[in-house]
Amino acid sequence: MAAARSGPLSGCRVIELAHIMAGPAAGMLLADMGADVIKVEKVSGDDTRRMVPPTVGGESAAFMMMNRNKRGIVLDLKQPEGKEALRRLLRDADVVIENYRKGTMERLGLGYETLRRENPGLIYCALSGFGRSGPYAERGGFDLIAQGMSGLMSVTGEGPGRPPVKVGPPVSDITAGVLGAMGIAAAYAHKLKTGEGQMVDTSLFEAGITQTFWQSAIALATGETPEPLGSAHPLNAPYQAFETADGWINIGAANQANWERLAKLIEAPELLEDHRFQDNAGRMQHRLHLETILNAIFRQRRTADWLDILEAGGLPAGPVLTVNEMHRDPQTLARGMIVETEHATVGRTKALGSPVKFSATPTAVTMPAPLLGQHSREVLAEAGFSDAEIAGMIDCGATRLP
After folding, report:
1. Residue 1 has what pLDDT?
2. According to the model, what pLDDT value does residue 2 have?
3. Annotated catalytic sites, by residue?
4. What is the pTM (predicted TM-score) of this model?
């Protein structure tokens, strides 16, 4: 039987029929919050298992990152035995997460309308490229496509006239996972009050659009098309990265008080007398000239020296860290954002920790990503399958063990 989990979603059973990132991200967040997440993989496994290199002890690092805290089972849904096993799992589940193309689950006889008749309390989360309605509902989707179509790539990069740039991390994938988990948690609260399940529908496209709040505010108010600004802000200045003697530093002088504080801390009081920079509207209008002046000042000292000065003066600032430097940062470690688990074959492995902390129902990362089919026998037995039935499913290839 599954070990009791801590966290605010303890007792919630989730069946994850998802691969790559958006769906697994949603499942991972729910698992961190205590849900019993059962990841159902095809016989060949989640495609992320083949996203190599790098590997850790022969296991895909990408797969292990996205699938910690879950139990894993293999079901071949092309076989009647595999499909029936999934149906039985879903009868008692609180949540199912899927990111197939529209119509796939219906063709399997496992669409939302069918499943809700068998389990009226089921929360059905569909994560897709463009959502379950609208002219693009039939299209598949990837993070790159969503970033382009949501407007993100048009405002990311060094400046106007340069090639479009994708945000480094797959932000529409990850954000879709966060939105899916948020929607599931809200639907679960509704279920606890009413016993009623429902469909939760979001997409990579909408996740990308959600990231454009400031740029959309500008476009909707003015009709103008926002352009990329490098690290600068579309509404506040100075609020960007500046070059120092040995690297880069981010400066958050995003209001009048912080602007005045900055000018004093960098010993440039003349900037406060310059009519071009006396208010935020002026600083935005003359942002490039202000950037030139500030870059010349910041290049005179090392990043660490500037940070000491600015922190002592109460001005928001921070270094531009590499990912490896972020992993070693004392705040990262103090917040438990690097954790270790004991993998069945690899041994001790590191992963990112849970980003949400609860005072009464703490989250925990206690399980590594499963081996392919690691919990098939355990989960099927919990669903009421006999040893003979499980052996038969293994023999016909409807499931598999590691």
Report:
1. 53
2. 61
3. 173
4. 0.94
